[in-house]
Specification:
86 residues, mainly alpha, 5 helices, globular
Length: 86
């Protein structure tokens, strides 16, 4: 995978996890999950379907853990650290 696409996927996945964490409505959670779905589509589902489905099933309550598990640009790390403090 191209490095720029990989970075975009990591930043988008982390952002979507934090959006899911902060969601106040079903529509907001659905929007965050759609972003994650798009990242997973770019990565490809072949050989990963079970893993990706388990990720979706376990997302609620694990958003910070999952977002922290992927490398992201420093601007995103700073933003998310500030969001968690709120």
């Amino acid at each position: 995978m191209d490095e720029n696409i990989g970075s975009m996927c990591c930043d988008t996945f982390a952002t979507a996890c934090y959006l899911h964490l902060k969601a106040e409505s079903k529509e907001e959670r659905v929007a965050a999950r759609k972003l994650i779905q798009q990242v997973l589509d770019v990565m490809g589902w072949e050989g990963r379907r079970t893993f990706f489905n388990r990720l979706f099933d376990s997302l609620p309550g694990n958003e910070i853990l999952y977002a922290d598990a992927v490398p992201k640009h420093s601007e995103f790390r700073k933003l998310f650290t500030e969001l968690i403090r709120c």
